[in-house]
Amino acid sequence: MTTAPLWQTRVGDVWAAEWQRTDRSFADLARSLDATILALAPMQGKAVDLGCGAGATSLALAAARPSLSILGIDLSAPLVAVAQQRAAHAGAGNVHAICGAVPDALREGAPFDLAFSRHGVMFFDDPQRAFRGIANALQPDAPLVFSCFRSAAANPWASETIAAMGGRLDRPAAYAPGPFAFADPARLTALLESSGFTDVSLQPVDYLYHAGAGDDPASDAAEFFTRIGPVARVIAEAEAADRPALLTRLRSILATRVTGSTLDFPAAAWIVTARAQGNRQ
Q: Which residues pair with 236 in a beta bridge?
């Protein structure tokens, strides 16, 4: 379970350091997600990136909608700093990132004409409160677009690597913040509808999770996985004496996925769209 305090400290620090490999892992998904966001984005007005991370999704939208003001919100100060630096480097003057929690930080710019997120909404400590706050911060009928992982079984980058180390990923009986928090489409649809959204649609997207590259893609992927994701947590929580064997098993399963200079896993996500019903108190 990845809670807000972890994003504000250790987890956020690691993601900020690993933003380039993280963006690489989502590059194939980003093509579908960015196209969906762009199709619903107004030419001007205000948009908000929920859990903006290092800013990749904000920057993609900013390039296509230069007259649209985009606010990025993230719990991690180091990630926000990376997003700001990237926006400055890209000359994206319409992108501004702040450190804060959804929905509280939304008050700075509300009402918005669009809310979007690349895998940032799965870590809300209280998703009902967060999504209700998002609905309240949107103009009536304004769109919400986000991506999230489908089941662990459909994402072997997680399930296979965990299994190689003797573990398994089960769907929690109740909500818990983490990568597979919104895998259940019925549960997610009900959550959004009860939080002030209508016209909820979940589109399945299968894509390649780019885990490793370069001269030794297996070692590149192993380093990435031991820093970010479910495998990192297993290794961190293991006894020191057990870690070398776990790393050997991890490298073994990763080696089977290498093709030339790349290491890809199949991955599965939802791209979710919905519209705000209007302000609810």
A: none
